[in-house]
Amino acid sequence: AFASLVAFGLARFDTQSLLFRFQKLLGFLSPGLVGAFVLGIFTRRANAFGVFVGAGVSFLLVYVLAFYTSVNFYLYAVLGIPTAVLVGYGASLCRPVATLPPPDVLWRWK
Q: Which residues, at least 6 apart from 54, have a Cβ–Cβ distance to it below 8 Å?
């Protein structure tokens, strides 16, 4: 039953392949997630507020690129990830630093 629904959807929306649709979906959703990962791994100043703002702005940018321009979907990530990182870091700088837990709670290299 599921395969029949997928086949119907592919025929209805004139899709060449399911892989094409999957790649387009990943290009649409992943820039905000990758930007959040980059902020969390490579910066100490990033906070949850900045990550959410960066991911949201990245999602809006990719939405505009997808539906209002003729940009190829392979460029969604190329434009969305730096947007998420830069906007997220900037938004993190605008928000006050949260107090950190005691040093014995955090794991770090010695």
A: 32, 35, 36, 39, 83, 84, 85, 86, 87, 88, 89, 91
As given in the structure block, the two tokens for residue 20 are: 């094409």
Residue type for position 110: K
Contact 84, 57 (CB under 8 A): yes
- pTM listed for this prediction: 0.75
Tokens of 9: 């959807």
Q: Which amino acid is at 62?
A: V
Distance, CA of 28 to CA of 10 (rounded, Å): 19
pLDDT digits (tens, 9 = 90+) for 4-33: 887 787 777 766 777 887 888 888 889 999
